[in-house]
Amino acid sequence: MSVLSESAFAELVEPYRRELHLHCYRIVGSLTEADDVVQETLLAAWRGLPGFEGRASLRTWLYRIATNRGLNALRRLARRPREAELPEPTRLAEPLWLHPYPDAMLDAVTAPDSRYEEREAVGLAFTTLLQRLPARQRAAVVLVDVLGFRAGEAAAMLEATPIAVKGMLRRARATLDAHRESVPEAGDAREREVAALFARAMEDGDTPAIVSLLTDDAWLTMPPMPHEYQGPAAIAAFLESRARVRPGPLTTAYTRANGQPALVAHVHAPEGVRPYGVLVLAVSPAGLERVTGFIGPAVFGHFGF
């Protein structure tokens, strides 16, 4: 393909930018890293465009670049030190470097013959499980089982043989199937109701009101910290301990992340209002099944705050 101006190239790849970003997020688990990987992908594509011979579609070629840039990013991230000494985990062995993904940024995410329904394919539980897979298995599952590429196409992207990719898929599917979580759909109205009650209780510092929303086997997690709290009593004790050291009350705003209801929280400290975190909720007809808290300001800009 001939050399294009920067504006012409931008117009050429714009239809794929959003889906590439979601793909990179699935590979690396981080919104900010996905931003960087997409930029690296598009820069590499622009520079490599004269050598693009059209033997695969432009979309396939872009996914090949994005996948390999994402795998390179994971190798860099593997050398990242822990931000703090962490307590012993309850059942997770390593820190999970994961961000929530704003629904406002979601694009078409699954192929018609995907192994996963769209709701599951963007959900936080599935995204978390992906991060537990070895990097190349993760890439193979996303390319074939979510996006619908053939095993031979994925093999070309991963510079592997089709037999090797089928082996990656077999092992990855076994892991995913063994740990898949299914939260029954509560419906939009019920999700909004529970999210509103949870927000009010968080702002009021009303731990009993929060506990009243939880199912008996509810979980609270806080990536990247590899510890979890299960059950109303354990969650209540944790929330009380956090409230004692938090520098002020919280205010929240409703949003959605990974296809789920979520709250963006700010803390009103003596020195001023500052970002606190994003809380993603999994709601079933029975109540609040899981709260995943992403503490810190890293992704606030992606949520419009």
From TrEMBL:
Keyword RNA-binding: no
Biological processes, Gene Ontology terms: DNA-templated transcription initiation; response to stress
Molecular function per GO: DNA binding; sigma factor activity
Name listed for the protein in its UniProt record: RNA polymerase sigma factor
Keyword set, alphabetical order: DNA-binding, Sigma factor, Transcription, Transcription regulation
Sequence similarity: Belongs to the sigma-70 factor family. ECF subfamily.
Species per Swiss-Prot/TrEMBL record: Actinorhabdospora filicis
PANTHER family from the UniProt entry: ECF RNA POLYMERASE SIGMA FACTOR SIGJ, SIGMA 19 FACTOR
Pfam families in the cross-refs: Sigma70_r2, Sigma70_r4_2
Subunit and partners: Interacts transiently with the RNA polymerase catalytic core formed by RpoA, RpoB, RpoC and RpoZ (2 alpha, 1 beta, 1 beta' and 1 omega subunit) to form the RNA polymerase holoenzyme that can initiate transcription.
Presence of the UniProt keyword Chaperone in the record: no
